[in-house]
Structures are given as C-alpha cells and as structure tokens.
Design brief:
Blueprint: H1 5-13, H2 17-31, H3 33-44, E1 55-58, E2 70-73, E3 79-85, H4 97-102, E4 108-113, H5 118-131, E5 136-143, E6 146-151, E7 154-160, H6 161-174, H7 178-197, H8 209-231, E8 242-245, E9 248-255, E10 258-265, H9 266-272, E11 277-282, H10 290-298, E12 303-306, E13 309-313, H11 322-341, E14 354-356
Parallel strand pairs: 3-4, 4-7, 12-14
Antiparallel strand pairs: 1-2, 2-3, 5-6, 6-7, 8-9, 9-10, 10-11, 11-13, 12-13
Helix pairs in contact: 1-7, 2-3, 2-7, 3-6, 6-7, 8-11
C-alpha cells in the first residue's frame, strides 16, 4: 500500500501513533452507521451480542482510573464494549484483568493489534487472566486473525487491524460512502506503516551467530565485486574510501563520469525488497543525476529513484556456492556499468518504470570520504 497522508504526518508529528489510530477509529465508528454495523457483525461471529446503537467514545476514564482507548456504551449507559488499540506498545497493568472486572457481565473486551503480534499478544492476555485466577474457556479461532474466548462470564477477543478494517471497508464500500472509505484507507495506511517499521520480538534464529556471519559475508561480496570492477578497469577507487553506518556498508567508486556506491543496505532491503546489495548511481558531484536516470531507462534497467540517486538492485542467487553467487552478481553489475558507459545512440530504448520513494537514511546522503594520501 502506498504511504497515506495520515501515516506520513503521524510519523513526523506524533510520538504516540496508537493515539492517532484510536481517534481515527473512534471517528469512523461515530460517523458511519455502516462501520458500526460491520463491527457488530464481526463480533457476532464470535458470539459477542452487542447492540447496534452503541455510542463510541475515546479515552474516557472509568471508575478505577483506567482509561480504555474506546468505550462503546448502550443507550442505557451500560458499557457493552471496551476496545484497546495496539501497535507495539506493551499491555498496561490494568490490561486485561482490571478491564474485564470493570465491565458488566454481558460486556466484551476487544484488543486490536498488528497481525505479526497476534500469537504473542493472545498468549500474554490469556496468561495474565490465568495468573489472576480468571477461568479462560471456550476459545474460538474465528479466522486466522480473529480469536475469542470466555473469561468467567465476559467475552474477550483479539483481532488484527487488517481483519477489522477490511470488514469495515467492505461495509462502507457497499453503502457507497466514499468519505468513510477514504478514512478507512487512511487508517489502514497508518496501520501498515506501523506494522512494517516495528521492532518485532526477536527469534532464537535471529540471535544465533548465523545472522552475524551472513552480514559479514555480504560485506565480503561488496569488497570482491568492487575489486573486480577496479581490476578489470571498469571502475576507479582512486582517492575514495569504503564507508559504513548503521545498517549499511559500501564502497564508493567512479564509473565513467558517474559516482557510484556499491553497498549492502539493510534499509533498502527491508523497504524495497529485491536484494541486500544495491548500486546507487549519482553524478560526478555525488548528487542525483538525471543523466544516470536517462542511461538506465534507455538500457531498460529497472531502478528505484531516491533523492540521493538511482538505485539498482544487484540480485543474489539462492542455493549456490559463493563463487557462483559472486559470478552471477558481477554479471548483473556489469550490465549496469555498461549502460553507464556505452554511447546512448547504440542502445534501443525500452520501457522502464521508476518508483518514487521516501529518501533513504541520512548516512547514504554523505559524500564519500576522500583519501588524501591515495596515489
């Protein structure tokens, strides 16, 4: 999904994106009867009997001093639903035990969280109930990202943002409510951004030494590829040093009239996919170059544009020995180098799509450090 205005502004202006999501969801529920019906139907699938005419309020403190994100009150004032909106913030001391004890026996507690957090969060809320001597029974997996259980005589459930917003989106779309459809899309964009940028719980595999070895091996590939370009007189490293910062390591080179950075980049790998190794092509002044874009486009080489330069993914092949991986990567790199050095009139133009994206992290924005002692 393309980044939405709400997700962009939240990342720039709000230190607590959960609060933005809470207010956005509350706004949608208050303004749209179709959204409210979608939530009622979703909960009905888990045997949550809540009225259609609930009044939704955000950030209202209860008698114990707790402040649930969204409270749904029936016309008689009875709390029918308490909704807690989560991204990656931990549970508070009151969640879920105090919340369950403070709602009527016919009430329900619903957590909304990223799909990637689903299993861990469900295990945590159930564990807290069990440790508080609250009997958890009748667990139902309504769908892959929606689970419910009975806790004593109350209902508790967990649903992903994706599942909830998809249900609401279908309902408002069917009603032809374009304004609310746009609102749901904006909130979905924020949720997707929070999901993609979150610090996920570490796994045993990620803490093993194999990850460290692999990162070192990517750096070794960079050095070998750069050295081969220099040895075969396709690039020059004269006066240029290697460079590194958090999440990336690379070698600055000159290829013809261009400055390039051949580098392993975690940010680009995580954000753009395709490969952990990238060639960023700039002008001779180490700034973004329209001439470089034209050369790549003319040669039919796919690239991703960013404010610093034109980025080409250098593919790495799986299930091969190192020398084969290196050879295939060099062939791909050679195609880019040739595109930058051949005469523009000698290549037949072919279509290419350029994707405008957010700027890469600031370390890539630094000009290369020149080695004054280089010969």
């Amino acid at each position: 999904m393309t980044e939405t205005l709400v997700s962009f502004l939240t990342s720039k202006l709000s230190p607590q994106p959960e609060n933005v999501a809470t207010e956005a969801l509350g706004f949608i529920l208050r303004r749209s009867p179709d959204a409210r019906r979608a939530l009622v139907q979703l909960l009905a699938d888990a045997s949550f009997p809540i009225p259609d005419d609930i009044d939704y309020r955000t950030q209202v403190a209860d008698d114990s001093g707790a402040r649930p994100d969204i409270v749904g009150a029936a016309p008689d004032g009875r709390v029918a639903l308490v909704l807690e909106a989560k991204f990656w913030a931990g549970l508070t001391d009151a969640q879920p035990v105090a919340y369950l004890k403070n709602i009527p026996e016919t009430g329900a507690l619903l957590f909304v969280a990223p799909a990637k957090r689903f299993e861990l969060l469900w295990s945590e809320v159930v564990g807290r109930c069990t440790r508080a001597d609250l009997k958890v029974h009748g667990v139902l997996s309504i769908r892959p990202e929606f689970r419910a259980a009975t806790v004593e005589s109350r209902r508790m459930a967990l649903v992903s943002w994706r599942c909830l917003l998809q249900a609401i989106s279908v309902s408002v779309d069917a009603a032809g409510d374009s304004a609310r459809t746009g609102d749901v899309r904006q909130l979905a964009g924020l949720c997707e951004k929070m999901d993609s940028e979150a610090f996920l719980p570490l796994t045993d595999e990620e803490l093993s030494s194999s990850i460290g070895r692999r990162v070192l091996q990517f750096g070794g590939l960079i050095d070998d590829l750069a050295q081969r370009l220099v040895t075969e007189h396709l690039a020059s490293a004269k006066g240029l040093k290697s460079a590194a910062a958090n999440g990336w390591y690379g070698r600055y080179l000159r290829v013809g009239s261009y400055g390039v950075l051949l580098h392993f980049n975690s940010w680009k790998w995580a954000t753009w996919g395709e490969s952990p190794i990238w060639l960023m092509i700039m002008g001779s002044n180490w700034k973004a170059s329209p001439k470089a874009r034209d050369a790549l486009r003319t040669s039919g080489i796919r690239f991703i544009d960013s404010p610093r330069g034109s980025n080409v993914a250098i593919p790495l092949l799986a299930h091969l020995e190192r020398n084969e991986v290196l050879s295939a990567a060099y062939k791909a790199l050679l195609q880019v180098v040739q595109a930058l050095t051949v005469s523009p009139n000698s290549v037949t133009a072919s279509p290419i799509s350029i994707e405008n994206t957010a700027a890469e992290p600031l370390p890539d924005g630094e000009e290369p450090e020149v080695d004054d002692n280089a010969s």
